[in-house]
Design goal:
By secondary structure, this protein is an alpha+beta fold. It has one domain. The protein is about 35% helix and about 20% strand.
């Protein structure tokens, strides 16, 4: 659609998800964009400098900050990073040794 139609759909999308529709401020939309900003800055790497577009960034945007993280450095093999959430665990593996992590498993 044209720009006006896209803007209307954008506004409707966030209005439908506004936890406090009687106020101007939409907390959910603000949190979503805060997460994108954080992921962009925190999870960028040499392989993909756009941190919000890689596996860790996408998980962070969708689920927020993990309850806990653990990084394992095995004697052989690649560095593993584990993110724990209340009902879910994400396992990432280093691909280059320079901050590039790919999602390799979930529990």
């Amino acid at each position: 659609g044209n720009m006006q139609e896209r803007e209307k759909k954008f506004r409707e999308f966030w209005e439908q998800r506004d936890p406090t529709p009687n106020t101007v401020y939409n907390e959910l939309m603000a949190e979503y964009y805060r997460r994108i900003d954080y992921a962009f800055n925190e999870y960028g790497s040499q392989e993909n400098p756009m941190g919000h577009e890689n596996d860790q960034g996408e998980v962070y945007i969708k689920f927020g900050p993990p309850d806990s993280t653990e990084r394992r450095f095995p004697e052989r093999g690649r560095t593993i990073e584990i993110w724990e959430y209340p009902n879910r665990t994400f396992v990432f593996e280093s691909t280059t040794g320079f901050g590039d992590f790919k999602l390799v498993g979930t529990k």
